[in-house]
Amino acid sequence: MRAVLMAGGSGTRLRPLTCDLPKPMVPILNRPIAEHIINLLKRHQITEVVATLHYLPDVMRDYFQDGSDFGVQMTYAVEEDQPLGTAGCVKNIAELLDDTFLVISGDSITDFDLTAAIEYHKQKKSKATLVLTRVPNPVEFGVVITDEESRIRRFLEKPSTSEIFSDTVNTGTYILEPEVLEYLPANQESDFSKDLFPLLLEKNEPMYGYIAEGYWFDVGHLDAYREAQYDGLYHKVKLDFDYNEVSPGLWVGQNTFIDPAAKIDTPAVIGDNCRIGARVHIEAGTVIGDNITIGSDANLKRPIVWNGAILGEEAQLTACVICRGTRVDRRAHILEGAVVGSLSTVGEEAQISPFVRVWPSKKIESGAILNINLIWGNTAQRNLFGQRGVQGLANIDITPEFAVKLGSAYGSTLKPGSRVTVSRDQRNVSRMVTRSLIAGLMSVGIEIQNLDATAIPIARTVIPTMSVSGGIHVRMHPDRPDYILIEFMDAKGINITKSAEKKIEGAYFKEDMRRAQIHEIGDVAYPSQVMDRYCTAFEKLLHIDTIRNSRAKVVIDYVYAVSGAVLPQMLDKFGADAVVLNASLNKTTASAIEREALLTQLGQVVEVLKANFGVQISANGEQLILVDESGIPIRGEMLTALMVDMMLTAHPRGTVVVPVNASSAVEQIARRHDGKVIRTKANPTALMETCQKNSNVVLGGNGDTGFIVPQLHPGFDAMFCAAKLIEMLTIQERSLASVRSELPRVVHKTYTVRCPWTVKGALMRHLVETHPAENLELIDGVKICQPYDDSWVLVLPDASEPVVHLYANANDRDWVDESLRQYRARVQAFVETEVEQALGEV
Known about the structure:
With 842 residues, the chain is of the alpha/beta class. Helix content is 29%, strand content 26%. Strands 14-15-18-21-24-27-30-33 form an eight-stranded mixed sheet, covered by helices on one side. Strands 5-4-1-6-11-8-12 form a seven-stranded mixed sheet, with helices on both faces. A hairpin with a 5-residue loop joins strand 45 and strand 46 (633-634). Helix 7 (400-412) packs across helix 10 (498-510). It starts with a strand and ends with a helix.
């Protein structure tokens, strides 16, 4: 027997699920509805299937092809010009139907006994048998009434409440004899329930209703779609699963990794090639497709997640549908009944309210609250550059194809034939991205000086010596081990300006990239003596004899994160004793927790070896944390104050450059040494530019970003700082513990408050308007200063996340605690009011 699978429906009521899929191809338990129907047909020995197609026909044809992979023989009939209706499309293939055949709907889930229905049809010598079932509420279906012999006497398609005369409904599954098609006109739209069956009744043809036992559910709207998934999970319907049942009620696909700290309640389905992070909670009823990545601490309460989606850390999903290839960023909330269409992006801390629908390829901005359906408009263009370079999830945002285009865009802003350095850290993913950038640069006629795996201070040192137009450095993000950071430098080794960033973004988004002719394609060179140039510059700024006479012992922890680390060799050359820990480049990037454990280990080694101090160097040579001779870490604001004190002791009346949020201990130290303090915006580029523009700068930066010694190169350099510390401690005859004990006792605390992007500007304006102008500093954010001392509060919007940072600074701890409490309450109250007003307007 042949079966006709009615698969032409567009599923309007299932939008946005069916914007780019025909309704029968919508997945239930990670398989298309049509595949579940084909499995049912196979169970009843029906293996010849003709699928009638109209809406997006290629989707089904590409998936099933000839049907051999699914154990059936598939034939397709496409309604090219206009839909012919349920009966008209079958009439259109009448030449293929020369014997009893079965018609089955492509948008319902069932496990009916089709064999029994076919036997019933033959037993009754019926011309048309309708497979019926009983439902509690028949308003949405065609109602059928039969006599005592089950012969159909009357039916009504989708009656009103007042017209209901039975709870027995038409399931869209029919067993027909081919001669009934002779009643239908050719090439005209016609319907089984509205046209053919009334005509058969009128002609008194034998037409019977078979009331089937078992499960049947019309997946006609979004609530029904979710319910069908849950019914399949809880075995209310017999469906085949694609995956092994690894424990009762838990089906897991191949090559899927589930962190041991994840918690999974059953029943649940997790597809092939998935990655489930630490402390993820997957509640019973959840369906996860293939190739899904779920970040740590995410909470999934019965969502349906289609193939290829990416769920960020701490994402919260509740009984929603996330379609193919959608990305849900950190701490985003998608509430019950919401649907996010394919290839969309939900930004960090965004919220999609209950039952809101988002059409495919849309972008919800970070921190936004969406209360209405998002249908029109394209994906919003975002800025490529953040506060520091271009950054994104490794191999998700920053992919090879993205990097090729970015390289072409950057190269197109330079003159043809320009030379650019390219360097990276030692990670394989950085190598992949670097090679893609190089390909893009070459394609627009740029010559490459490939520095390969090189610490970023070394790259910044040699760039000014190489007659290049600029440089690119690729590395794992120092604060987020799953992120790639791509930094662009000018001919001096300083991060490029905002205007240069805008030019690159313009070329990227407008796709305004030139194409070099074959003979103009750029070349790649590997310059020699790169390390020697850095070492020479390094040595010129140190008193080598002082270090040699110090006989210092230093323990260096590289936390598996520094390429081309030359410090041990340099110190050995200067006669100092360097003990190196964790220098392997093969281990993956250490997490924050692992770095803390390594820092504890470093303190212990320093104590045991009676070393002068220890230093943990990270961020590919830029950042450091010190450990004094007692094994106590020195970091953050204390590290900033210590470095400023030592450099101004060595260079009285010098100038130091620090970000706006640095502790006022810097000013107090500068006053001791008749020094000058310049404060900048709280970003690395501002620090680098200010150090270069001002004379007599001896130090720039802070304990979080690292430190700049502008006489060496314009960037941060933890390796040089460590060597300089040996020199200064020796000349000043001090230890780190003694320096620390002499630092000003300033209380400096911080607190982070959630703040949607749309509220940040209003919050800053509110703070400016509600404080006296003479008490304000507006270098970056809003700093409210006390007129009588160094006390202040800073409200600083984050450039990358929907948050603001509060800083309170004073000599008085009680004042700091109270000020932080007051401004936290003030900011939170303002944010809540603004959000409520926005919701009211919606």
